[in-house]
Design a protein that fits this description.
With about 300 residues, the chain is an alpha/beta fold. It has a domain at about 1-170 and about 260-310: Rossmann fold, CATH 3.40.50. The protein has helices spanning about 5-15, 30-45, 65-70, 90, 95-105, 115-125, 170-175, 185-195, 210-215, 220-230, 240-245, 250-260, 280-290, 295-310; strands spanning about 1-5, 50-55, 105-110, 130-135, 150-155, 165, 270. A 7-stranded mixed β-sheet has the order 6-5-4-1-2-3-7, with helices on both faces. A hairpin with an 8-residue loop joins strand 5 and strand 6 (about 165). Helix 2 runs parallel beside helix 14 (about 295-310) and helix 13 packs antiparallel against helix 14. The chain is globular, with a radius of gyration of 21 Å.
């Protein structure tokens, strides 16, 4: 199995879920590092993958998306209009997380100018041998679930990993009322119509999640749905919905670029994605554990690597 970890999703959750009283010997907060390392160990313990990649945001608000839709994540911009508002205490911990991953020998992947969602989408698109499990607290990645050519499932950790739910086409279809045969694609189509305030995605005025799912389910693709907007004879499109979609035509023209993962993202990886049985640099990992007070978390991660290899 190949596990793809949405790293930012997990370390943000770790930062806000683990008390900031968790500090290094020098008093530096390491709650995100400790929490993320424990989460990663838990994922490895549960999935026992042979391959694992931690996927990174090299650009949290890609230019191609903000050009298409200026409101995309605009509410998260810092006063300089460029950087994302991230707590200083979390920003300082991200390099430590990367150091731990490097010393452990766990593969990191990113793509210049793209989000982690795109990295994960590209790695799913190219996978032709092993089943894939995506670990994230971001529902946007539901669009990637599939059965062929290799199964892709999303372990959704919105309420924490211990209570995470595994979504495939059947579970996605049952939860949202989408066609199972194309549940992942249909989820993305539904998201375009419904919108998502947390991402600055306006959606179509007057179209909620239930209506969006019903309409999407009547068509084989988003392009087919949009063609029906201009065909008053297409009875699959209720007249009231047609008027609302027509009024949102400019938004709907760019929505696919914003919502769909860029599966052609130029992913670069730190090395092979084979999960190591032991740390790549045990001395460095021990040094990091001592400096930052990560002993128990690092020991758990090391034990998880060894157990997965057995």
């Amino acid at each position: 199995m190949l596990v793809l970890v949405d790293s930012a999703s997990l370390y943000f959750r770790a930062f806000f879920g683990v008390p900031d009283t968790v500090t290094a010997p020098d008093g530096t907060p390491v709650n995100a590092v400790r929490g993320f390392t424990d989460m990663l160990a838990y994922v490895i313990e549960q999935a026992k993958p042979t391959r694992l990649v931690t996927c990174l945001d090299l650009e949290w608000r890609p230019a191609f998306r903000s050009r298409a839709l200026p409101s995309y994540k605009a509410h998260r911009l810092a006063p300089d209009g460029k950087l994302e508002v991230v707590p200083d205490a979390l920003e300082a911990q991200v390099p430590i997380i990367l150091d731990v991953l490097g010393a452990a020998g766990i593969t990191r992947a990113g793509a210049d100018g793209y989000e982690a969602d795109d990295v994960i989408g590209a790695l799913c698109a190219r996978e032709s041998s092993d089943p894939v499990e995506v670990v994230s607290g971001d529902r946007d990645l539901f669009q990637l679930v599939r059965d062929v050519p290799t199964p892709v499932r999303v372990r959704y950790a919105g309420r924490g990993l211990a209570r995470a739910t595994l979504y495939g086409p059947r579970e996605l279809a049952e939860r949202y009322g989408l066609p199972e045969s194309r549940a992942g694609e249909a989820y993305a189509d539904m998201a375009m119509l419904r919108g998502d305030p947390s991402d600055g995605l306006p959606g179509v005025a007057g179209i909620g999640e239930k209506t969006a799912a019903t309409v999407v389910s009547r068509f084989g693709s988003f392009e087919e749905l949009m063609a029906a907007v201009d065909d008053p004879g297409d009875r699959r499109m209720p007249s009231g919905v047609r008027l609302k979609l027509a009024a949102a035509r400019d938004y709907l023209a760019v929505a696919p670029t914003v919502v769909r993962a860029a599966v052609d993202a130029p992913v670069q990886m730190s090395g092979p994605d084979r999960l190591p049985a032991s740390p790549a640099d045990p001395d460095e990992l021990d040094a990091l554990a001592e400096r930052w007070g990560l002993g128990s978390a690092v020991r758990r991660l090391t034990a998880a690597l060894a157990a997965a290899a057995r």
